[in-house]
Design brief:
Layout: H1 7-13, H2 16-32, H3 40-64, H4 66-69, H5 87-108, H6 111-135, H7 139-147, H8 150-159, H9 164-187, H10 189-194, H11 200-204, H12 206-223, H13 226-229, H14 235-256, H15 263-287
Length: about 290
């Protein structure tokens, strides 16, 4: 079969919506790292480098999962299962993105950002996709560390150091990831079972997964208070975090006591994305308000 890749196919390999969320949190990390405007070089080249690295990891994920993507209903129309892009083309594209990313970060930002970004790329593309995803129902819990790294990377791009406040941002996304992804996994349980991926709803059942979504959501609400408790953020952020957390808890509780395995889980999944973007937006706005509010 001849490969007929288009620019749109290559763009789809980069998972632009997922990458946009990751880069958004990285940029917020850059702004929170300084009381003023971040240096233009760190902001411009740091954002570009992190964006390219996240895209490289996404493309590698497509290439490594191409065979199971061809079986799952929600992924069988991706560029590789449909034969638009070959495995060789995908790996070459991923490697190119990664090399350009590392060059930008190493030479135009700082080596520490490059090293940490490369580590997160390998963590997602290799450790999670190749091993954890297929090895344990705790795959998304452990592998979530790679997805939680962007705000730390953004912070390091500005300061060339890892700050405890940056690690708080990491912790928020790390705890957010399981309830976010497990909601989707409930809705797609049969597809994951068909390809032998041991997602929690497949190995431990939907009821068990619903319980753990609620537990993690409660933990998430607690964790999101830490920026205020440590003096990193003010009252505006606190009120926003609690309001958003109440919304997430509403969905988690509704999910816990519902038999719906499609509509409500997908609503919870969608809300979790809005939740994270709004939470980081509150962090940003609060950061530039007068001290004490």
């Amino acid at each position: 079969m001849p490969y007929t890749a288009t620019a749109r196919d290559y763009l789809e390999l980069c998972k632009p919506k997922v990458v946009l969320l990751l880069v958004f949190t990285a940029v917020i990390g850059m702004f929170l790292a300084t009381p003023h405007w971040p240096p233009w070089q760190a902001l411009l080249f740091g954002t570009a480098g992190i964006w390219l690295a996240a895209s490289a990891a996404a493309v590698a994920n497509h290439a490594l999962d191409a065979r199971i993507d061809a079986v799952m209903d929600r992924t069988r129309n991706r560029p590789m299962p449909t034969g638009h892009i070959s495995e060789r083309q995908a790996y070459a594209f991923s490697a190119t993105l990664a090399l350009v990313s590392m060059g930008l970060l190493w030479w135009l930002v700082n080596p520490l950002t490059a090293v940490l970004t490369f580590a997160s790329l390998i963590g997602y593309a290799v450790v999670y996709t190749v091993y954890l995803k297929r090895a344990t129902p705790q795959n998304i819990v452990i592998g979530g560390a790679a997805g939680a790294a962007p705000p730390v990377l953004g912070w390091v791009a500005v300061t060339n150091s890892v700050d405890p406040h940056a690690l708080l941002l990491f912790l928020i996304i790390f705890v957010w990831t399981p309830p976010h992804f497990w909601a989707l996994a409930i809705a797609r349980r049969e597809e994951y079972a068909k390809v032998g991926i041991p997602m929690l709803p497949v190995t431990h059942g939907v009821k068990f997964t619903r319980q753990y979504i609620l537990y993690y959501t409660i933990l998430l609400v607690v964790v999101t208070v830490l920026p205020w408790l440590t003096g990193m953020s003010g009252l505006l952020y606190l009120f926003g975090a609690l309001a958003l957390g109440a919304g997430f808890l509403y969905y988690a509780i509704a999910l816990r006591y519902s038999d719906d395995e499609r509509r409500l889980p997908m609503q919870t999944f969608s809300y979790s994305i809005t939740y994270l973007m709004a939470l980081f937006a509150f962090l940003l706005v609060d950061h530039y308000l007068p001290t004490g509010f």
